[in-house]
Design brief:
The protein is 68% helix and 0% strand. It contains four helices and no strands.
Length: 128
């Protein structure tokens, strides 16, 4: 059993990714929905701060996605879509939700959850 403070493994990689996904998504929403209108109005401070923050953290976000993919063998298409979600305002929140569900579903033992029950067989039995 791993502790909450264990920085290795799938749960820790997923937690790091989730935290940064929310930060990058919030920074991009602030940049697009607050900074750009203020820049048009003549104030460049928000764009300078939020743009630099999003730019730096987006690089870290990409590295954390690669780390999570390496640990979980996330499908390539899923990884690329999650990376692209960091460029669309609000998309990181949905991508985080789908990625978390995928990882927990495929690694239930890492999260101390029982494995999903097997589907019942479709074997036909005759009644006589």
């Amino acid at each position: 059993m791993t502790s909450v403070l264990d920085l290795r493994g799938v749960p820790a990689a997923l937690l790091r990714y989730r935290i940064l996904a929310y930060i990058v998504g919030t920074a991009l929403c602030v940049l697009v929905f607050v900074g750009i209108p203020l820049q048009i109005a003549g104030t460049d401070v928000v764009v300078a701060v939020a743009g630099a923050t999003h730019g730096f953290l987006f690089i870290v976000y990409l590295l954390l996605i690669i780390d999570l993919t390496r640990r979980t063998r996330l499908p390539l298409v899923h990884m690329l879509l999650v990376m692209a979600a960091g460029l669309v305002p609000g998309a990181t929140f949905y991508a985080e939700y789908r990625t978390r569900r995928w990882v927990v579903e495929h690694f239930p033992e890492e999260f101390n959850r029982p494995a999903p029950p097997a589907a019942p067989s479709k074997r036909v039995t005759s009644i006589r």
